[in-house]
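Course assignment 3, question 2. Fill in each field.
Student: A.L.
Task: Predict the tertiary structure for the chain below.
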Amino acid sequence: MPSENAPWAHVSQLAAIERQTPQNISRFVIVWTSCSSIVPTMGRRQQPIGPRAAPKTERGRRFVDKVIEVTHRILAEDGYGALSTNRIAKLAGTSVGTLYHYFPSKEAIVAELASRLETRGLELARMRFMEVASWPLLEMARAFVTILMSDEIGIVSTRRTLLHHVPQRWFEEVGLAADREVRESVQALMALRQAEIRQGPTDVMAFIGYHAIEGVVEAAVRYEPKLMDDPQLWEELTWLLFRYVRPQNSSTKAADERIPS
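Answer field:
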């Protein structure tokens, strides 16, 4: 017996009422058509968002790189509404058919762009963390903030478009892996500088420190993009992170700390 919560249950009840009022049969047909269109999609698996397959040749890799570069430029200059496979193909100097050989839709291209920006952020973090390991703690915090604010992980206008239009699930696997590695790196840096930071669970402190800064940066990108060019935001985030990890009774004058020559 069908459940009362099934999409067709209420339609059946409506049908009984409509049989008593023939003049409203057309309205019943409209309702039935709308509801029945939902039924075939129940349980249907959503198509994955992403490339059809990784290119196997150097020529294929260069082609995909060009497509991603063009997509990045369109999003940065004109926004998501201006993006289409026809325009991407035209600016990339190829046909739509060739484009579809690698990507099933424009959403798949955007998902790949988002994944690449996440990967670029991780690569930048790896590089910077090695550089700053021996820096004064304040400058280490400043370097960390700089990574998240940098155009190297996406022009602000593009990052804003992605935050507004791209569901996290499209690139969640890459994003979660990148976040996890960054947190582990921050925790490792804390272990190296254990004598200079307050006592506490470094895994939890790394989680809070990283996601607090990341959250503010994403809010600025989404709602107040002009703040991304404001040195005061960079400095306030630096001090937020620095003060979070420093002992409260520290006698070190942070203002006197400098990047080593």
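Instructor remarks: The domain at 112-256 is CATH 1.10.357.10 (Tetracycline Repressor; domain 2). The mean pLDDT is 80.
Grade: pending
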